[in-house]
Design brief:
Heat Shock Protein 90; about 130 residues; globular; alpha+beta
């Protein structure tokens, strides 16, 4: 019985890891979609994973301060695991403006630096449970 229980725990951990990766992919996809819809012609993505968290770094050439302010307001929300568990699969649908709020609900920390007039640096941190 104990061997079966260990195998079930391994399967669940594997499912959780796969789900976590799918959520990271959805976040990155949504950001890229938003940037492309707002006329970005250069997008660089760097993803760093550790045992504690996943960090997503995005650098792009969006210069419209209104678009960036809107982005910042939407992704600066506090993480909500309840909202995330119900709605994260909606990321990637056509209505990208409203889905940016979901990114904010899926990350623990976010920063947008657009002090450089030609580039925006977006940093998202998602802590692992």
């Amino acid at each position: 019985m104990q061997i079966i229980t260990r195998e079930i725990v391994k399967i669940r951990k594997g499912d959780e890891m796969q789900s976590e990766k799918q959520r990271i992919i959805a976040i990155v996809n949504e950001l890229v979609t938003f940037l492309l819809h707002n006329k970005a012609t250069s997008i660089q993505i760097n993803l760093k994973e550790s045992d504690e968290d996943s960090r997503i770094y995005v650098c792009s050439n969006i210069a419209d301060s209104k678009v960036l302010s809107d982005l910042k307001n939407k992704i600066m929300a506090n993480r909500s695991e309840e909202v995330e568990s119900l709605y994260w699969k909606l990321l990637g649908d056509e209505n990208t403006k409203d889905e940016l709020y979901l990114i904010g609900k899926m990350v623990n920390d976010s920063n947008i630096d657009y002090s450089n007039s030609k580039l925006v640096m977006i940093t998202l941190v998602r802590k692992k449970n």
